[in-house]
Amino acid sequence: MAGNAKAQETIFSLREEIARLEGKPLATAAALQQAEAAARVHLAMSKPAPLPIDPDDRPDRLGFGVTRLDQALGGGLPIDGITEMRTARMADAGAASGFAAALAAHLKEASGDDAPVLWIGDAVARNDMGAAYAPGLAQFGLGSGDVLHGLPRRLEDALWLVETALSSGALAATILEIRGNRAQFGLTESRRLSLRAKAARRPLLLLRHGGQEEASSAEFRFLVEPAPASKRRLADGAMLKGSIGHPVFHLSLEKSRNPAPLSLLLEWNIHDRQFSEVDPRNAVAFPGIGRAPAHPGARLPASCDRQDRAAALGHVVAFERAS
After folding, report:
1. Above 70 in pLDDT, residue 312?
2. Backbone angles phi, psi at 168, to 5 degrees
3. pTM across the whole model
4. Which of helix, strand or coil describes residue 119?
């Protein structure tokens, strides 16, 4: 009980720091803390209290349950390190955010950790794509009481908050969401966060939207792209025609100790809280995976109130003069 009380006190202190960095009044933050504490007490009275988890008893890796992927990762994602997930386009940010939420839910389910997840968003990234939607997070297995949000005004404050959260060891995982390749977050800052995560034995999930590959202390880096959901599978193993199944992500392992390239479709089952590989033959043709759209449409709108362009020249054929 003393450990749980200390963890709650640490989380409350982090929320006060988040409110200060966001410029919100502390009274509002305190009221939210009291409401959250009351909700947690009510929830604790309705179910048996979980046993406290010793950080030394945590596994070093978090397996996906997919043999091909776990072998490439050396057993799974590191619990005491950085895992980077990037998108080449801002249009794919929703897929990467969903994959990060699924990873956090899988982590909490596999470890039995009742601690919340801290989701820290860079102000630049949030201005482009907005904040995480609570009902959407619930579709991936994260309830409203499972996620704490932070939106510092500066990236330097976000990095300080991530470092403080990792050092506290009171959170199940920390998610840092940034846009592009920022000069304020380079190899030096990444190495410092990696050391904090290793010392506290807590994972850090780095979401880089619309960024390029760059040197970092992340042990693994995924390129995340959206993928179509496969059809729902019936009890007899047949696929239900016209149905939509669980969310699917197209993952490409860009950085790992295994030099062999790896690309696969990974499905997240919210009910069973587990991942599974999708057979590409069961996936619908999707423009984002190596195929062009069937009807791309006009590249530019037709001009109006202007002179017509010169007609394209065809083949020139020489004919003899008639006279």
Report:
1. no
2. -70, -35
3. 0.72
4. strand
